[in-house]
Specification:
The chain is of the alpha/beta class. The chain has helices at 24-29, 40-43, 69-85, 121-128, 136-143; strands at residues 2-6, 34-38, 53-56, 59-62, 91-93, 105-107, 115-117, 133-134. It has one domain. It has five helices and eight strands, in the order βαβαββαβββαβα. The strands form three sheets. Strands 2-1-5-8 form a four-stranded parallel β-sheet. The longest helix has 17 residues, at 69-85.
């Protein structure tokens, strides 16, 4: 199975604060699968570290109120192209709550930690192309060891 995965979940230090979201259980569960690591935010040209960003009224803004929507959407497109160039994927396993990779829940744009129903911009693009998307917990619930 070919799996696109948020690079931060694999231990890449690409999170907005320069850290990662390494999930060792996920890394073990991915053993034997073809993995395509992606970080749409870096692919969109955003630096690491970078200001925290959230989706507000359909637009990605940073915590200074500046629109970074164009970079997030460009990164989503580049990640999609990277996945296509790798032969596509059977499923994407993405970091929850992220304005790029959030699946089902994202922060509401108030920078208060409030979650609302919705998807990150990369997830929206994947849904538009009928690519199955899940969080690491959902993937581990099916494929965990």
């Amino acid at each position: 199975m070919r799996v696109a995965v948020s690079a931060c979940l694999l231990g890449a230090a690409c999170k907005y604060n320069g850290g990662d979201n390494l999930n060792e259980d996920l890394v073990r569960a991915l053993d034997g699968h073809e993995v395509i690591p992606v970080c749409p935010e870096q692919l969109g040209g955003l630096p690491t570290p970078r200001l925290c960003s959230e989706i507000r009224d359909g637009e990605v803004v940073n915590d200074r109120g500046e629109s970074v929507d164009a970079a997030f959407r460009a990164g989503a497109l580049r990640a999609w192209e990277l996945m296509k160039d790798a032969g596509g994927c059977d499923v994407a396993v993405l970091q929850p709550r992220s304005p790029s990779c959030g699946v089902g829940l994202v922060y509401d744009g108030s920078f208060s930690g409030t979650l609302v129903a919705g998807d990150g911009v990369f997830v929206q693009l994947l849904h538009a192309h009928d690519v199955p998307v899940c969080t690491q917990d959902q993937f581990l619930g099916i494929y965990g060891q």
